[in-house]
């Protein structure tokens, strides 16, 4: 697309109803700005972080558990203090923010793709496929998401060697969280497909010989993306909190891969020693991230609901 086309598309979006509602919602604007700022900080962690949180040589045990604003033994300045390993908290939080966002986004994408495809198949074909997929969804809904993630993580720890499990910690965590969230996409898309498959444009496509895959992906799927986008936005905050919960429980990412949850877990062991910053600062960052995504998701849900349009 040319630059002129991009400008034209951007101008059209700016004049749309959803953009108008966005401009009239200060809370949504604030949530979007906070979320974008945190995303930029995570992506720019290599440039913004004073030290490399993944480099063991950057951690100095002599500077462990220093409070915010302290100077280290060798003259290093730690704006937000250090953790029990002597790592700079600011660097660890930036890299941990990147890890939490990476796991959250990847798990939401994986759950969305799997759930949307299963919902399309269940709603369009019906019959035994619909019954199997929906009964599997009903069974999964009877278990908490965190319990399913713990089960998958426990099975992989039993099957895989410890070193290999540590190397594959991020993909395993993404798969565990995605397996907990696909049901919402599948049930929502299935309901929408049941409505859309009887519409005239779908019947016309069948008569003209359009393939089933093209009908599903090119005709029906675009009409289901609004609710899917809302679910994905809200589930992003849930996925980040799930990753943090698993890491806090010690079954998520290893200590060598800092995430917001693992930083809170490490700091929790030293709260009663007066080292509050190790747990409080990553926890505050986690609250800001989850709250901004949740608020924006709630606004997006209301903005895309025609019954609430004003």
TrEMBL record:
Pfam families: BPD_transp_1 (PF00528). GO terms for cellular component: plasma membrane. GO terms for biological process: transmembrane transport. It is found in: Cell membrane. The keyword Transmembrane helix applies. Residues 97-297 form the ABC transmembrane type-1 domain. Coiled coil: none annotated. It is a multi-pass membrane protein. The chain crosses the membrane at residues 27-45, 101-125, 132-152, 164-183, 228-253, 276-297. Keywords: Cell membrane, Membrane, Transmembrane, Transmembrane helix, Transport. InterPro entries: BP-dependent_transpt_permease, MetI-like, MetI-like_sf. Belongs to the binding-protein-dependent transport system permease family. This is ABC transporter permease. It comes from Ancylobacter mangrovi. The lineage of its organism: Bacteria, Pseudomonadati, Pseudomonadota, Alphaproteobacteria, Hyphomicrobiales.
């Amino acid at each position: 697309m040319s630059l002129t086309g991009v400008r034209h598309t951007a101008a059209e979006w700016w004049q749309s109803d959803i953009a108008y509602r966005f401009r009239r919602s200060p809370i949504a604007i604030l949530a979007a700005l906070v979320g974008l700022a945190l995303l930029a900080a995570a992506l720019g962690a290599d440039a913004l972080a004073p030290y490399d949180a993944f480099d063991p040589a950057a951690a100095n045990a002599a500077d462990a558990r220093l409070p915010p604003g302290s100077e280290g033994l060798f003259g290093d300045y730690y704006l937000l203090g250090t953790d029990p390993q002597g790592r700079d908290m600011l660097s660890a939080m930036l890299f941990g923010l990147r890890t939490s966002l990476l796991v959250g986004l990847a798990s939401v994408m994986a759950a969305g793709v799997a759930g949307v495809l299963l919902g399309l198949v269940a709603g369009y074909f019906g019959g035994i496929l619909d019954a199997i997929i929906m009964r599997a969804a009903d069974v999964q809904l009877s278990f908490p998401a965190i319990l399913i993630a713990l089960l998958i993580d426990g099975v992989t720890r039993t099957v895989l060697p410890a070193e290999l499990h540590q190397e594959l910690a991020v993909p395993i965590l993404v798969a565990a969280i995605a397996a907990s969230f696909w049901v919402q996409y599948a049930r929502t898309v299935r309901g929408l497909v049941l409505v859309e498959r009887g519409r005239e444009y779908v019947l016309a496509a069948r008569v003209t010989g359009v393939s089933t895959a093209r009908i599903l992906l090119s005709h029906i799927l675009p009409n289901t993306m609004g609710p899917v986008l809302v679910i994905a936005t809200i589930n992003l905050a849930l996925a980040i909190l799930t990753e943090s919960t698993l890491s806090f429980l010690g079954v998520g990412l290893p200590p060598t891969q800092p995430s917001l949850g693992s930083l809170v877990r490490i700091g929790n062991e030293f709260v009663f020693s007066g080292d509050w910053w190790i747990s409080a600062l990553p926890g505050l960052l986690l609250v800001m991230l989850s709250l901004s995504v949740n608020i924006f998701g709630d606004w997006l849900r209301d903005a895309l609901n025609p019954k609430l349009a004003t």
